[in-house]
Write a structure and sequence with these properties.
1 helix; 5-stranded antiparallel sheet; mainly beta
Length: 191
């Protein structure tokens, strides 16, 4: 019986009788006739793993074969749109190997980056990150967006907080001024 194929593989036509040019079905689960074999190929973006063999039926002995395709790696430096650069206000943590961190990225792996202080990822979904699948490098959609520390209450201002791009500023209520020893604190103005 012809085995199921792994991800990325497909049957390359019908089986061929080695002596009589007869064909047999090469669909997963079908039965091979005597003196036939099935050829398989890998889909675009996949490659045959070294040592893979086709299933065959010769001399009344069925060989199951080792049908394995693996996804191709990606070159993030030559993908459409040029060299991969992280989004604005981000630093790359990892994005491939071999040379700079912008080179070969293995199949089904992701580039990861962190946002600078005052920014946060627009999505926590890892599939939005730049990634490689079957030889295609997807630049992803995630960006680093400004965090409103004042609205979140993560600022350390004693009185007033004004959000700015990437950070925030502290100010004081009327009758107070910023403490020169602590820019987040206020002190009473003495006259």
């Amino acid at each position: 019986t012809v085995p199921d194929l792994t991800d990325g593989a497909f049957w390359d036509g019908a089986g061929l009788d080695a002596q009589l040019n007869l064909t047999s079905s090469c669909a997963s689960g079908s039965t091979l006739t005597h003196d036939t074999s099935c050829d398989f190929s890998c889909n675009s973006g996949w490659h045959v793993v070294e040592g893979s063999t086709d299933p065959s039926c010769f001399a009344e002995v069925f060989t199951n074969g080792d049908i394995t395709c693996a996804g191709d790696s990606c070159d993030a430096t030559s993908s459409t749109g040029g060299r991969y650069e992280p989004p604005a206000n981000a630093v790359i943590e990892s994005c491939g190997t071999a040379g700079s961190p912008f080179n070969e990225l293995e199949h089904d792996t992701y580039c990861t980056f962190t946002c600078n202080v005052g920014y946060a990822l627009s999505s926590e979904d890892p599939t939005d990150q730049p990634h490689c699948f079957a030889g295609d490098f997807d630049r992803g959609t995630v960006t680093c967006e400004d965090v409103d520390e004042c609205a979140l209450g993560t600022d350390v201002c004693q009185q007033n907080c004004t959000n700015t791009i990437g950070w925030y500023n502290c100010s004081c209520q009327e009758g107070y001024e910023i403490n020169p020893d602590d820019e987040t604190g206020c002190k009473l103005i003495c006259t």
